[in-house]
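Researcher: Structure prediction, please.
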Amino acid sequence: MLYDPINLQKDVWIVIPAYNEGGMIADVVAEVGTMFPNVVVIDDASADETSATARGAGATVLRHPFNLGQGAALQTGIEFALARGASHIVTFDADGQHHIEDVPIMLEQLAQSGADLALGSRFLGNTVGMSQSRGLLLKAATLFTQITTGLKLTDCHNGLRVFTAEAASKLNLRQNRMAHASEILAGIRKNRFDFVEVPVTITYSDYSREKGQTFTDAFVIFRDLIAARLLS
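Model: Predicted structure follows.
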């Protein structure tokens, strides 16, 4: 499979789940739009101006009438993109942690490898502003994933992912918070997906740190990883 960046840009959809991200979503949509014209934001019943702000920045906006969780928001976006003929679907966070410059590299490595999905890894790449405690938590979760699932991952909770349309069509995400990441792990095992990990950069700001996980959330992550094991 040859990598054709011009055609891929036309057929790639960026899916951004958002909940009360009115303060950041315009910047994220504007950054994404510099490279990819197809951007859909799924407003998961935000109480702020997320929908209006994202639409004003150029995104297609879908809004859940009730808060259904990040997994359900991703699933809504994936189904929307597939219905519009997406060849690839990128999941992208709304809090400004991800960098759109990493996506073409992920698409290229996915095309060259022939894999079903590409997973971003901050531990193969770089982090900016990540606290030591957060790094330890994420590395512990990754080690647990390796032991319990057999998946050779270096970063099991990175929201920057690229799916082929075929792989994305086999997902059925419904869970909230970090549980949707465990659903994806279960889907990798169940469907025997081939995947590649790609070095990416994750930037933590005061804004994203306020929305992120702490050590008090560790039991949630490990519970979800156990659930992924049982579902696989």
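Model: The two ends are 29 Å apart (CA to CA).
Researcher: Thanks, that helps.
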